[in-house]
Write a structure and sequence with these properties.
By secondary structure, the protein is of the alpha+beta class. It is about 20% helix and about 20% strand.
Length: about 110
């Protein structure tokens, strides 16, 4: 994420980074192609299991925020398997141009 504080304020819009001026804000936990970021919308006053996920497909001040009221594991599952999970679906790219040579492999 960008280090310049004024630019970051513009990019985050209505949100602030968690821990700056309080105990609520966004915590980045995932990147999204092409230039997006996924965050937890954290609030220390509530159970972390209830924190919604917010993200931008492209981290620009023009890009709209997307909110998801689900766990991180469900978010990742939907992004990988649900072609309608826009704009973060990976599956939609596979549906458009399947490549049978690509497979998921377990690594150690």
């Amino acid at each position: 994420m960008e280090n310049h504080p004024h630019r970051m304020e513009r990019l985050l819009g209505p949100h602030k980074v968690y821990g700056i001026n309080g105990r609520s804000g966004v915590i980045p936990w995932c990147s999204a192609a092409p230039d997006g970021v996924i965050f937890w919308l954290a609030d220390a006053a509530v159970d972390p299991d209830s924190w919604p996920i917010v993200g931008k497909y492209e981290l620009t001040h023009e890009e709209e925020w997307h909110r998801f009221d689900m766990s991180a594991s469900e978010f990742v599952y939907r992004a990988l398997t649900d072609s309608e999970f826009r704009p973060f679906s990976v599956q939609r790219w596979w549906d458009q141009d399947p490549d049978p040579s690509l497979t998921f492999q377990r690594t150690r």
